[in-house]
Amino acid sequence: MSPKSTKHPYPPYGSHFSRPGEGRAAIIFLAPAVIGFLIFYCIPIIRGIHISLTDWNLLEEPTWVGLDNYKRLIEDATFLNSIKVTFTYVIVNITTQTIAGLGIALLMQKVSQSTLIRSTLLLPWLVPNVTIAAITLFILDPTVGLLNHLIGLLDIGPISFYGNSDIAIYTVALVNSWRNMGYTGLLLFAGMQTIPTMIYEAAETEGASTWQAFHHITLPLLRPILVLVVVVSMIGSFQIFDTVSVATSGGPGNSTRVIYLYIYQKAFEQFDMGYASAMAVVLMLGLMLLTIIQLRLARSNESDLD
């Protein structure tokens, strides 16, 4: 009697689809995302790279200039300053937003996990940046602003938060940190829910303090989510435009002229589309490089949870 052959109920990992039609269904479900990616990302990127190699004022036919636009970038003091200003904004924004979000997540973990509180934390994030900028223009106004009225009670003179070139970019960064810290906190709080409670219970049994549990358990096991949040926030921070456009228009001087605003001004105010596209390509490549470096250094694809 020959032994009965046994078949595994599931195909081995990496094998073909086990049922007829599964491959077709997968293609159907993936097609909208793939088509959208090609239409709204790949084609515009290729088109943008092509425009960056031309001199085009939007009114006449583009003229091929090769790498001349990229050579202009090296000699453009305003472009170099916009890179510096943007990096300042990103560092301040990411640092404060991540620290505040982590603090909010810890408070929600320890104090309250109420759905109402979670919804309230999302309210600033749901308000458009343009509205936030308009509101803060009144709150931070040196003459009639509420914040200046409050600090005036402490005998501190009125501060022109948006009008002082030394602090304007920091003001923009902190305003956007306030707007996004609730959303960041919720993402980190969701990541904390994946950490088994038995690990904290074992640490508590061993006499670990709250700080030791946070430092040796929460942070290492939260690393993949934390890296993802930081990378996504960094990409969004480099794309800051609306808050600066409404609140300062790049001023005073060039103190808040971030790279996105400078690209917009070159393209649609000065009609130098080729040069603006070159800046956009450089920004895209820079973001790709920073993202790859950050993911590799933080080992985002690894987890300390065994």
Give the amount of beta strand, in percent: under 5%
CATH topology of one domain: MetI-like fold
- State mean pLDDT (0 to 100 scale): 87
User: How would you describe the shape?
Assistant: globular
CATH architecture of one domain: Orthogonal Bundle
Percentage of residues in helical conformation:
55-70%
Number of helices: 12
Summarize, please.
The protein has 306 residues and is mainly alpha-helical. 68% of the residues lie in helices and 1% in strands. It has a domain at 68-277: MetI-like (MetI-like fold), CATH 1.10.3720.10.
Itemize the secondary structure elements and their pairings:
Elements: H1 22-52, E1 54-55, E2 63-64, H2 68-75, H3 77-110, H4 115-126, H5 129-139, H6 146-152, H7 168-192, H8 197-205, H9 210-238, H10 242-247, H11 259-269, H12 273-298
Structural write-up:
By secondary structure, the protein is mainly α. It has a domain at 68-277: MetI-like fold. It has twelve helices and two strands. The chain has helices at 22-52, 68-75, 77-110, 115-126, 129-139, 146-152, 168-192, 197-205, 210-238, 242-247, 259-269, 273-298, and strands at 54-55, 63-64. A two-stranded antiparallel ribbon has the order 1-2. It starts with 21 loop residues before the first helix and ends in an 8-residue tail after the last helix.
